[in-house]
Structure formats: C-alpha cells, structure tokens
Fold each of these.
Amino acid sequence: MRGWQRCLIVSSALFVGCGGAATPALQLVEDAAEAMGNLRAVSETTTLVNEGQGRTHRLGQNKSPRSDLPYYEIENYRMQIDFANERWRLRQDRTTTFLTGSPLYGVRQTYGLDGDVAYDEQGERNVRASERVAAERWAEMYHNPIGIVLLALDETSTVSNLREEEGQRVVDIAAANGTQFTLFVDGETGLPSKVMSSRYHPNLGDVAVETLFEDYAETGGLGGFQARLMLPRSYTTNLDRFQLSQFRVTANPDGQVDDLAAPADARSAGPTMDTASVEVEEIVDGVWYLNGQSHHSVLVEFDEYLALIEAPQSEARTLAVIARARELQPDKPLQYVVNTHHHYDHSAGIRAAVSEGLTVITHEVNRSFFEELVARQHSIVQDALARNPQPLTIETVNGNEPYELTDGSRTMQIYRIVADAHSDGILMAYLTRERILIEADAYSPTSREAPFAEVLLQNIEDRELRVNTILPLHGGVSEFEDLESAARTAQELAD
Ligand SMILES: [Zn+2]
C-alpha cells in the first residue's frame, strides 16, 4: 500500500501541501479523509483494530426464501487489519440463536487473510480456503473508511466517476487487481457512509455487498494525529436485500496487531478446490444412495425415467452426481430432481441440474425463489447454466397434498413435512413398496442433537407411512428405530 506516495506526487511538496488532488473524484476522497480528522493521519495509518460485539446472519438458511435470516450472537469480536501487508485476522465467539442440530455456545471462530492466502483455524490446524474466498476477504479489507481511503490514494488504483446518488457524493475506485468499489460520502458530514463492492456467490451469481458506516465518534489513542480521527462505531453489511452482519465496535487506528502472517500449514496447502467424490450404495434394486461427502442424493429408477432427490452442495457436486446417475442407468433419461428445501447447501446444484435439462420438483413456497435463481446473472463467474442457458421446468407440491411419481409398480410419494421448524416447505420422499424414507435435515444421524426428529416422526405417523429404512441426506443409512430413539432423546432434553 503506497497511499502517501500519490499525495507526494500530486503535491511534489511536503505532506502539508497534499491538497489539490489530481481529479475532482480523488478530491472527494481526500476531503473525506480530512473530515475523518486529517488526510495525512489517515494516509499514514497502517493498521486498524475494531473490537466489539454484534450478529452474523446465516445467508440462505432462513425458514422460507424471503423471511429474515437466522443469526449468531457475536461476543469478543476482534478484527485486526494490517493494510501495509494486506493481512487481517478475525476472532469472535458465536452463540446460536436458532434451532439446529449443532448449536454453539460461545464457540470461538478465527479466520483471516494474508495476501492471497485465506485460512480458517480449525482446532489445532488451519485450513486453506478457496481462491474465491481469498478474493472476497481481500475486498473485505476495504469495507471500512480507512481501508477505502488508503486504496483510493494508492497510485495503482483508479478513482473516477464523481456523481451524486441518494443525496450523497459517490466515486468508483478500481483496484489494480480489477476489483471495483464504490465509495459513498455523506453530503452533510463529508464522512464515508458506505462502501460497495461486487462479488460472485455460487448460488446467487453476481451480488452487491455493501457496508454502512454509522455513528462516527472520535477514537482514543496515544495522542498525535490518531487522537483526532473520527471512525464509525456501527458497521452493517448487506448482501443484496439480506443483512449479513451488524457490529458495534471500538476502533483503534494504528493499534498494535498480532503477527498476522498466514499459519504455515495453511500457506503450504494449496487453495481448496471445489471437488466432488461420489460414492454409490445400492439400497434395493433401482434405488441408489449417492454419498461420499457431506450432502447426499438418492437416485430412483422408474419404468421410463430416473428421478434424483437433491442437487446439493455445489455445482461440481451436482454435476458429478448427475454424471454418476446416468452411468448407473444409461438407458433411461434422468428426468426429475426433487429439491427438499431451498437452503443454499441443498439448492446449490439446482442451476446445474436445470442446465442438464432436469425438471425441478419442490414445494410451491419455493417457486419464485427458483424462478429468480435461474434468472440471475452469473457474469463474474460463468456457471454451467450461464454457459448453457435452459428454461426452468418446475412442478410443485402444493399445501400439504402429496405429489406422486409412479410407474404402476414403483411409487414415490413426496410430502411436505408439516410444522417443521427448520424450513417451511421442506419435503420428504417415501417409496411405498420398499418402505424407504428419504429426508434432509429433519433427522441427521450424525448431528449432535435432533430437534426436528419428533416432528418428522409425527408426520410419518399422520401420513400412516410404514417406514423401515431412512436414507438421510446427511449421515448414513438408518432404521426407523434410530429416528424413534433420537426423537425420545430430544424430548428428554426438552423436558
Ligand atoms: Zn436446511
């Protein structure tokens, strides 16, 4: 980061003469830095430490596609940024506020970035994240007033397109690596009010992420310029229409930071790639359990066609599952994909499935969600559907009425799991003759707790299903008795 150099070049004099920016767009940035206390002080800031508490929301895990996101309560939030070395590390303690099989109570989370190395601490070891995550985290470093000013002043950045929007003065900032930011400056205070940048989200495609800066206050510090800096105490980050996080912080510019170098084990590992490994278990003739990773699918053969239950996890996973399904029975078309619920980890492969010509069966509450999902723009990364556009063909399970696929000898009934607290329109599939139930998240034998098991059991009883075997889309093959015992344990826990 060489922010100050631009000032020297522009002024060809001492820092005092740094005013008189080359362009009106750059002038807006310099004025904003002055409003924060002093252009020189901001330019010479090398670190920022924000500490506080707040919430982080779980995108794509809401009860229905348009409802509010569930969230973790965050304590002991500590974000340390080293701008000069392009490093940061976040540490926070998360507590779950929603019903889940894996609740957290003040559980510490640590992750960070060192240049192009993004890493997540997992117990004793550190895991290298993907290149996409590293790019997101790099942009995140500039979603604060000091970072964005430093980036704008850097001689390798381009600052342009001064304009007015929403009563604010706005400029675009293009970083040397091509990442585009937009800085909003409040018309009255002259302080940075918002930074936006675009990123790629595997489910949503091109998305805008914005961070709002509010409640500016003078920061503490040891005196000198730092004592006079004005910085926000409130940060709110939104992705499209969803709030992702909100924090109340105490800011410490030029605060002491830890050694923020990437841990050696993360650095030496290559970036995580989105790979798929599909393993096949034939449960009965014509029913295959496609597992091998965290999210499974089930393939069911009918007389004239094949039906897949779930296109989960990622495009790579779903395309591998589809390829495997076609290998298992090459003589019949793979016609349907049943989506159990809209949660992003269970719908991540729907665009890929549509690109492969599959008809989506889901609950009616998800129809507009999937219509929008298929129509969204994926220009930052061209996914399978962007490369091979296909129309969405969708059939819906309506209300609590069952939906049926049958060829006369094999029948698969698809039911809504009524009153499930995890997801409104969540579906389960039941093979009547084989007495096999296929479900996601309502009962996962591998999760610590089973808060949704009782409701699933109730639904099975109410529908008078005679389930012997359960194929959970997380975990492994289970018996009906396993579900009964999980429901009993959950009830005892609740009492
Ligand atoms: Zn779910």
Amino acid sequence: MAKQQSFADKAAKAAQMKGAKCPVCGTIFQPLLTVSSEPSKTSGSVKFNERRVQVCKCNEKAIYN
Ligand SMILES: [Zn+2]
C-alpha cells in the first residue's frame, strides 16, 4: 500500500501544480496552444506565432468562437 500512497500523493501534488484555478470563475485553467499567422512586413512571408493560453470560463468563448 506504500506505493499506492505515494502515487496518490504525487497525483495530488501534480493536480495542485497544474490545476491552477481562475480566481474569477473558479474553473481550472486548461492550457491551450494557439497558433496565429501574421504576414511579415519586411519579407512578405507569413510568420506563425505560437502562444500558450490558459482557458477558463472567462475567456473560453473568446478563444473558441
Ligand atoms: Zn475565469
């Protein structure tokens, strides 16, 4: 049972670290990788920007629309 206990502890710790809650709506943030393309002014080629956003109920509609 010692192993099970430590696994539960680790899982609980991981959940605490990853599961940051939004102080406004109380939803646990879901990390989401968004990619936006921007035409570069200098070269004329398209540049891709990767951005990590934390999604909660406050901004999910703006992100998923
Ligand atoms: Zn929120």
